[in-house]
TrEMBL record:
Organism: Virgibacillus litoralis
One protein family per Pfam: SMC_ScpA
Annotated InterPro entries: ScpA (IPR003768), ScpA-like_C (IPR023093)
Cell compartments where the protein resides: Cytoplasm
Assembly, per entry: Component of a cohesin-like complex composed of ScpA, ScpB and the Smc homodimer, in which ScpA and ScpB bind to the head domain of Smc. The presence of the three proteins is required for the association of the complex with DNA.
UniProt keyword list: Cell cycle, Cell division, Chromosome partition, Cytoplasm
Similarity section: Belongs to the ScpA family.
Primary localization class, coarse: cytoplasm
Name this protein carries in UniProt: Segregation and condensation protein A
Functional description taken from the UniProt entry: Participates in chromosomal partition during cell division. May act via the formation of a condensin-like complex containing Smc and ScpB that pull DNA away from mid-cell into both cell halves.
UniProt keyword annotation of Lyase present: no
Length: 243
């Protein structure tokens, strides 16, 4: 009996993280959030995750409901308020405060992580004279997020008309992630100038799409490959991380 190919990811940090990503991506003023626009973009990510049958945490769906409710409120005709009447709170205010608070803690966590990384790079050793040592450009890890990858995946579905994968039910474990990791790594290694993210997805079936997506994440986690994007909304390219 076939079961749907479901994958649970711990890479997603929560709905506020996704919203903050969208705010940064589209250069939105966090103090004046265009609810209709951000709701549309947020729902696109949710639909992409659901089309892959990734286990979307309930907190993402709760936030989706919250955004849709806010969108409805913002569409209602505004009532005229007399000067003597009390100030009417902006429906977006609570969400704005939650995002600002989340951004504050996220920035603090990133600064602590940077300090930890810098501290790990400090070590002492006896003086050494470096003669005839060739300088080598360090490999800079990509800063592409999982949300950038989901966005690229969603666009690929639309471009290749893969919104409804040909095969939606497969046996669990039919495509081992380890096998797919090897295939992806070999493909990336052969592409010296990097390979377009789309090129890694050669079969329009949910099984192959999900397995490839997870394989890419695992390889990035292991620092074997990296995804690069020149700027937001540009095409993604995957590179091999040489030793």
């Amino acid at each position: 009996m076939n079961q749907s190919y479901q994958v649970k990811l711990d890479t997603f940090e929560g709905p506020l993280d996704l919203l903050l990503h969208l705010i940064n991506q589209y250069e939105i003023d966090i103090y004046d959030i265009p609810v209709a626009q951000i709701t549309e973009q947020y729902m696109q990510y949710i639909h992409t995750m659901q089309s892959l049958e990734l286990n979307v945490a309930s907190e993402y769906l709760v936030m989706a409901a919250t955004l849709l409710a806010l969108k409805s409120q913002m569409l209602l005709p505004k009532q005229e308020i007399e000067e003597e009447e009390e100030y009417m709170e902006d429906p977006r205010e609570e969400l704005m405060h939650r995002l600002i608070e989340y951004r504050k803690y996220k920035d603090a966590a990133e600064k602590l992580k940077e300090k930890e990384t810098d501290a790990n790079q400090i070590f002492t050793r006896p003086p050494v004279v470096f003669d005839q040592i060739k300088s080598r450009q360090p490999i800079v890890k990509g800063d592409t997020s999982i949300y950038d990858m989901l966005n690229a995946l969603g666009k690929m579905f639309e471009r290749k008309n893969w919104n409804k994968p040909l095969e939606t039910k497969v046996k669990r474990g039919e495509i081992p992630i380890e096998q797919k990791m090897t295939e992806v790594l070999d493909l990336v290694k052969r592409s010296k100038e990097g390979i377009a993210f789309d090129k890694l997805f050669d079969y329009p079936t949910r099984a192959h799409i999900v397995a490839t997506f997870i394989a890419v994440l695992e390889l990035m986690k292991g620092n074997e490959i990296q995804c690069r994007q020149e700027k937001h909304l540009d095409s993604l390219y995957v590179f091999y991380m040489e030793d």
